[in-house]
Specification:
alpha/beta, OB fold (Dihydrolipoamide Acetyltransferase, E2P), Rossmann fold, Ribonucleotide Reductase Protein R1, domain 1, binds guanosine-5'-triphosphate, binds magnesium ion, binds zinc ion
Length: about 300
């Protein structure tokens, strides 16, 4: 028996990296079962497993430190585990080509908060920005830094300020996310030139969302650590939020909510709401409040 980490899972087959760096294409033993969650994939990228290298069969799963799941819909009983044993997530965004909506950032951050996974926000393609776009990037940086997130500005193609993200990724297992075209594969290629991942591959910008059958894959970094490249963000967006708890996942709203008159305030139109006062007084960014409302009031089907 040998030990390894699952670096790719395509439904029935699992690519396992062993401790000496060799790769094995494995399957699960017929009666393999994981107690607890009902999932479509009992083993996921990031899982630590025991396997039989001779027969290429995974025989046991090491208990997970954490994992993120996605459900096909809020009504679906079965979930898919996207990745396991994560130290952190890195969300790559851009101000242009493509432009990442702030609501998209906020949904990602709230979901990560719900899983207690720290997020580093990275604004890429700074080489393309005019003064106005750079000002917007700086504004995003300052808003999220004030909340408590780490925010970096980089250019992956021009090799600008890549030392910091490189340092933050070292020896960690990181989920790399962001919508199609923001430069995830480009960044990974810079950090590990031996990868030569396809970039601008564009199964594409325009078709984003069609190809939900693509799979996350884990790549080793030369200095130690792993990055899991995910296809778009769709896998990360759906979580069973309890309506009363959504504001817990907006740290700055959560902090101020303690001052609301009613302990069960949803910060909608209740009297004595400290959150709405803070929005009116610019102590909470209005777009963050709008993102909160959109999750609170959404038709769940819309964001599937
Ligand atoms: N100017 C500029 N272009 C960049 C930068 N980073 C990436 N690009 C370009 O953006 C395009 C998309 O990059 P990818 O790395 O394929 O994007 P991705 O996030 O992996 O996209 P998907 O795999 O579709 O999710 C490519 O043409 C890259 O060359 C950058 O810092 N500056
Ligand atoms: Mg890519
Ligand atoms: Zn309130």
């Amino acid at each position: 028996m040998a030990k390894g980490i699952v670096i790719k899972s395509t439904g029935s087959r699992y690519r396992v990296l062993d401790e000496s760096g060799n790769v094995h294409e494995c399957v699960l033993r017929g009666r393999f079962r994981v107690s607890g969650v009902r999932t479509t994939n009992p083993v996921a990228v990031g899982d630590h497993v025991t396997f039989d290298p001779g027969e290429s069969i995974i025989t046991a799963l090491t208990p997970r430190r954490n994992y993120i799941i996605r459900k096909a819909s809020n009504l679906a009983r079965e979930s898919q585990v996207i990745a396991a044993n994560l130290d952190q997530a890195m969300l790559l965004v851009t101000v242009k080509m493509p432009s990442t909506p702030v609501e998209f950032i906020d949904r990602f951050l709230a979901t990560a908060e719900a899983y207690r996974i720290p997020v580093i926000l990275v604004i890429n393609k700074t080489d393309l920005y005019c003064d106005e776009e750079m000002a917007q990037a700086c504004r995003i940086k300052s808003v999220y830094e004030k909340i408590g997130y780490r925010v970096l500005l980089i250019s992956a193609t021009e090799d600008i300020d890549l030392k910091e993200p490189e340092g933050l990724l070292r020896d960690k297992t990181t989920l790399l996310s962001g919508n199609s075209g923001v430069g995830k594969s480009t960044l990974l290629n810079r950090l590990n030139p031996s990868l030569s991942l396809r970039t601008a591959s564009i199964s594409d910008y325009h078709e984003q969302g069609r190809h939900i059958t693509t799979f996350p894959e884990m790549h080793p970094l030369p200095g130690g650590g792993y990055v899991i490249d995910t296809p778009g963000i769709r896998g990360f967006g759906v979580i069973d939020f309890d309506r009363r708890e959504i504001y817990h996942f907006f740290p700055e709203i959560f902090r101020i909510a303690k001052e609301c008159r009613f302990h069960n305030c949803l910060h909608l139109d209740e009297p004595g709401c400290a959150v709405r006062d803070a929005v009116a007084g610019n102590r909470i960014e209005v777009w963050r409040y709008k993102s909160y409302l959109s999750i609170l009031l959404e038709d769940n089907e819309k964001y599937r």
